[in-house]
Amino acid sequence: MEITTQEGLLGPLLLARSAIDRSAALRGDAEWFERTWTDGASRVVVVDDGQALIRRNGDGAALVLLPTADAPEGERYLLGVDAEGIAYFAVSAPLTGVAHDDSFNRIVAPLAPSALREGEPVAAGLRQVGPLLGDLDAGLLVYAVALEAWHSSHEFCPRCGSRTEVRAGGHVRVCLQDGSQHFPRVDPAVIMLVHDDADRCLLARGPQWPEGRLSVLAGFVEPGESLEHAVAREVIEEVGVRVVDPRYLGSQPWPFPRSLMLGFFARAVSTELVLDLEEIAEARWFSRAELLAALESGEVRLPSEVSIARRLIETWYGGPLTGDW
């Protein structure tokens, strides 16, 4: 499925790709589900705490997709059906016999293809291999990781505390005590590149990041709040800058554990920085020449290509940049 939602954004959003039909109408068809599960053409991605088996594929990487007969025991989630009619499932189960990349829960640079050995699968997450995967595999892994993260925190009913069980191909959990249904949720978050009338952009870093690791501002949308108001509120709360004219550019799932990042440009009408030091350790205005010089010297490093933040910065700059986290 090819859908363009980021008109004007420079480059693809690497975690917003997909090549399957999510097949929502089939989720409640138990007979179809069981029949398709036993179909020799169906394939499974095993996901374990946000990681899956990855192998080298030429200059990129590919998911290790198992026949359903070889899949381990675990919760099953229907991911969808591709144009050729092949069904894809995720199974939440431990990955055994491979080394895990324990850096998954930290901000890390993507792996280079050379880091993956031919024919030797490794366990890795989206941050490491997202840019290396093709459209089908990227979409499958994002979907599987997001579902696994939600299910792992909803084993019990939020209303009565009783155990819940998976239904509808992994897209509903039903309380065994009161029958209430609970559906996977995402947390909307705005992420915005702020620019001023002098054609500078504002980059910042959180206290948990090392010096030199800069990105754009971001924050969660609050209850009862529009996206545009969230953009303005987050910017003034974090750096004391007032912005107007928020312009939407695109969105990308960010399943760490369940965010949807909604990307904006916003124009600053004040430029004095007053930092919320609990959220922002450093913030700086950059012209294009200043940003390029800081990247070339190694003084500044940008978010990786897997993030919408990188696309926002490169769109403002007008071309590709180097200097990943």
UniProtKB/TrEMBL annotation:
GO terms for molecular function: hydrolase activity. It holds the Pfam family NUDIX. PROSITE patterns: NUDIX (PS51462), NUDIX_BOX (PS00893). The lineage of its organism: Bacteria, Bacillati, Actinomycetota, Actinomycetes, Streptosporangiales. Residues 184-308 form the Nudix hydrolase domain. This is NAD(+) diphosphatase. Keywords: Hydrolase, Magnesium, Metal-binding, NAD. Its EC number is 3.6.1.22. It catalyses: a 5'-end NAD(+)-phospho-ribonucleoside in mRNA + H2O = a 5'-end phospho-adenosine-phospho-ribonucleoside in mRNA + beta-nicotinamide D-ribonucleotide + 2 H(+). Its cofactor is Mg(2+); Zn(2+). Belongs to the Nudix hydrolase family. NudC subfamily. It comes from the Bacteria.
